[in-house]
Amino acid sequence: MMLNQALECQTAYLLLGGNLGDRMANLKKAIELLNDKVGGVLSVSSLYETAAWGKTDQPAFLNQAVALKTRLSALEVLDFALNIEQELGRVRKDKWGERLIDIDLILFGDQVINIPDKLQVPHPHMQHRKFVMEPLAEIAPDVLHPVLGETMLSICRNISDPLEVKKF
Questions:
Q1: pLDDT, tens digit (0-9, with 9 covering 90-100), for 65-123
Q2: pLDDT tens digits, 10-45
């Protein structure tokens, strides 16, 4: 049964971000690698620039949401995303620290996944972070959050995050 689930196409929504180096080039390369290794890219949001969240004494981030169709499992998508981050030069130092590239799996179809210390889908903090919701609502306004039962657009419109997020 699990094998068949992995073979069914799912739509995965990822958030890409970075605040070091050539931010636009890093995002573009990450999208190309995701398309080559994970699944066909269906849509890509505009670029959004945001002040750093969590650890604020660092350069502004560029963020972009990506939707892709994949036959991989959510864990396989996560593993490929982590490998792509490494391939593009990501070094993990500080939580919420500076980075060349960050790729987070935000939604995976309508699945709810909780593997402690490995993967939580939907992303547990997405509904509180404007830098996630603005690009996601742009490409998936009518997609329902599988736990909250609200659309991405509705969540985005009602978010209380004060951090400014602007199209780049």
A1: 999 999 999 999 999 999 999 889 776 666 656 788 999 999 999 999 999 989 999 99
A2: 999 999 999 999 999 999 999 999 999 999 999 999
Per the annotation, the verdict on 90 as an active-site residue is yes
- CATH class, range 2-167: alpha beta
92 counts as catalytic: no
pTM of the model: 0.91
**Residue of 79, 90, 117, 142 marked catalytic:** 90
Task: Say whether 128 sits in a helix, a strand or coil.
Answer: helix
Whether residue 102 lies in the annotated active site: yes
**Residue from 102, 110, 129, 142 carrying the catalytic annotation:** 102
Catalytic residue among 71, 99, 142, 157: 99
CA distances from 91 to 45, 87, 94 (A): 25, 10, 9
Residue from 32, 39, 27, 16 nearest 131 by CA: 16
Best CA proximity match to 30, nearest among 87, 68, 72: 87
**Cα dist from 37 to 72, 77, 139, whole Å:** 10, 9, 21
Q: Which two tokens stand for residue 29?
A: 């390369």
